[in-house]
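#data-curation
PF: Archiving a pair of folding outputs for the training set. Convention for this channel: one message per protein, sequence first, structure tokens after, nothing in between. First:
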Amino acid sequence: MRARIVFLIRVPAERREDFLAAYEKIRHLVAGGVPGHLRDQVCQSATDPEQWLITSEWRELADFLAWEAAEEHRDLVAPMRECMTEARSLRFLIREETETAVPPSEETGAVVAAVVARGPS
């Protein structure tokens, strides 16, 4: 079962560029060489510029746990961790997922808005 790992972190404004540079160095190494890693994202809060979110998706939780336990992992993430004042890690198993087959366009959005405004037929 696929897993989603969520890190809620705080990065002071004066460390933002160091944090992003450290993330940039790590992300390509992980994406290209860590078994079971599927994707990741780094996100900054729209309302609190010091609040960040890193999510990663893994083929199985065991893949992430093996990576997290590896000495290589600790060495790679050390520069990122040095930029954080707070960090919280959460682990989730992905039970269901919905994907959009075609990204909605403005035209599709307008049609949906009209249908919603009109109500059920």
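PF: Second:
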Amino acid sequence: MTTIRLVQGDITRQSVDAVVNAANSSLLGGGGVDGAIHRRGGPEILDECRALRASRYGKGLPTGQAVATAAGKLDARWVIHTVGPVWQGGRGDPSLLASCHREALRVADELGARTVAFPAISTGVYGWPLEDAARIAVETVRETPTDVEEVRFVLFDDRAYEAFARQLG
């Protein structure tokens, strides 16, 4: 059974097998969590992302899918990149947000990762309402069969931490 933990802090400082990156479809870095992971992880992550773009993902990584690279200088073995959906005009597709979590766990299982750190996917510039994103994330992780032993939701501020804590009950 997977243990779910909450941590308030910086996801790039977590010592885990895999860190999940709330990436943009280009896989070439960006703002928020994505930019922080690329900055702290160093050029190795970007180099592998460029190689993925040149081979399998010429048009970018589709929303809801996940792919792994090395973690560079992070205290992790891998970065699992997933593209969350954008909240548009008061609505979004919750199945795509759930898919981000399921697919990240699937990739983690393929890699043999036992500890995985997730951010609050889609809640930054993509605008997904925090309470709803927390519900979808926690429910999906609880319901997804996986060999991952610990999922750690690493939440940047009090507001996000409290939203996830409410979902864990």
